[in-house]
């Protein structure tokens, strides 16, 4: 007679689970065919109450946008490029980049005008970018950059291909040397720091000596590095081109044993340059009171490619000119560079031809401003009208364009001082 041991219910349930889910057990082998095992007595099923389906109201997951059709992409590309203009500005640490950035900020008009400033290899290379680089229609450079491309590069037709829109600020040539070198001729055969590649001095410095027939040994360093080597007597002089007071010399203390070498304005410089002087008020620590050193100045230029009238690229340049002139008044207000206030829209650039559309815009601006009303009604005289009045008050009238330009700079300084009173 076999004895049947009573097993407690919890233990029986555990044993049954172990048998069912142990690998290799008979229960596991029959899992796919055997009916589900019930551990409860059979009873009638209770009516089921459906639970709310919360998942139906869940937040939809982000969907990847469906790709646009080829026609949509083409329309976007056309719209974005229609009125976009590339501007060759200059080196990252150069002054031109700031002017270009401020222009882009003020001239941005959505799809109607977008100016894209480009960091380039420098002022001279900006001419090459304007001539050959795809997408560049505008460039900032110095007026004497023409000399390199017209003579060294052999581009005799450059005046027809590139025109100017505005003459920007004027930069002065500083030649700072040891005291034993009194004149430019004394620097013959000497080591002269002319600045690193791309800066204005690297082009203008050697060009000045070359035009005067003075052979020098150019050293490609500039700024504070050149000034340090000058004090160590490793070089004889340094060339620095910037609007005075230049950053390198402004704030300097007295510097015995060194001085600015005069650069006389001669016939060799009548094509691109202006006569000017470095005055004691520019560098009070480096020059004795009420003294000045004559030198020359080179204007910077906002240039454009002279596209064929009626072409797509010409239309872009024309719209650029319209938008720039419309925003000039805004650019002449803070926080933009104070150099914008010195712009003379009528100023010419020696050796360059103005872009024809600019003349049409200036004529239109004059007609819009000249409505035949007295000054009390129109507000005040324009800067050009004030300048003409200033000229009339001078004892000696200028006899050349160069003298008139220098007098205009004096007028601007005079105007600023009067406004500060």
Automatic annotation (TrEMBL):
Residues 33-75 are annotated as: Disordered. Coiled coil: none annotated. Keywords: Signal. The keyword Lyase does not apply. The keyword Signal applies. It comes from the Bacteria. Residues 43-75 have a biased composition (Basic and acidic residues). Residues 1-26 form the signal peptide. It holds the Pfam family NMT1_3. SUPFAM superfamilies: Periplasmic binding protein-like II (SSF53850). This is C4-dicarboxylate ABC transporter substrate-binding protein. It comes from Bradyrhizobium ontarionense.
């Amino acid at each position: 007679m076999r004895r049947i041991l009573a097993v407690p219910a919890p233990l029986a349930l555990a044993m049954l689970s172990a048998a069912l889910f142990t690998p290799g057990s008979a229960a596991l082998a029959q899992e796919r065919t055997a009916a589900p095992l019930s551990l409860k007595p059979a009873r009638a099923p209770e009516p089921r109450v459906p639970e709310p389906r919360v998942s139906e109201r869940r937040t939809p997951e982000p969907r990847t946008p469906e790709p646009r059709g080829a026609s949509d992409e083409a329309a976007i590309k056309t719209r974005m490029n229609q009125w976009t203009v590339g501007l060759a500005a200059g080196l990252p640490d150069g002054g031109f980049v700031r002017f270009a950035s401020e222009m882009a900020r003020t001239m941005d008009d959505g799809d109607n005008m977008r100016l894209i400033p480009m960091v380039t290899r420098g002022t001279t290379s900006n001419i090459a970018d304007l001539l050959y680089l795809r997408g560049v229609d505008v460039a900032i450079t110095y007026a004497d950059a023409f000399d390199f491309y017209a003579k060294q590069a052999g581009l005799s037709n450059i005046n027809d291909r590139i025109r100017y829109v505005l003459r920007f600020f004027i930069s002065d040539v500083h030649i700072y040397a040891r005291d034993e070198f009194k004149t430019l001729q004394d620097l013959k055969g000497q080591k002269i720091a002319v600045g690193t590649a791309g800066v204005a001095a690297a082009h203008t410095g050697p060009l000045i000596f070359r035009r005067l027939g003075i052979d020098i040994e150019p050293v490609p360093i500039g700024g504070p590095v050149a000034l340090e080597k000058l004090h160590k007597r490793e070089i004889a002089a340094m060339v620095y081109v910037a609007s005075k007071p230049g950053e390198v010399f402004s704030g300097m203390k007295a510097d015995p044993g060194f001085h600015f070498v005069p650069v006389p304005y001669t016939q060799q410089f009548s094509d691109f340059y202006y006569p000017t002087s470095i005055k004691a008020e520019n560098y009070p620590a480096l020059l004795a009171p009420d003294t000045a050193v004559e030198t020359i100045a080179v204007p910077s230029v906002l240039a454009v490619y002279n596209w064929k009238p009626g072409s797509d690229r010409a239309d872009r340049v024309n719209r650029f000119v319209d938008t720039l002139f419309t925003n000039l008044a805004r650019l002449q207000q803070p926080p933009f560079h104070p150099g914008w206030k010195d712009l003379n829209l009528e100023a010419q650039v020696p050796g360059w031809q103005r872009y024809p559309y600019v003349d049409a815009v200036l004529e239109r601006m004059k007609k819009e401003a000249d409505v035949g009303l007295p000054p009390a009604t129109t507000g005040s005289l324009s800067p050009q009208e004030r300048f003409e009045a200033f000229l009339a008050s001078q004892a000696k009238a200028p006899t050349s364009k160069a003298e008139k330009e220098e007098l205009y700079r004096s007028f601007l300084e005079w105007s600023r001082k009067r406004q500060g009173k």
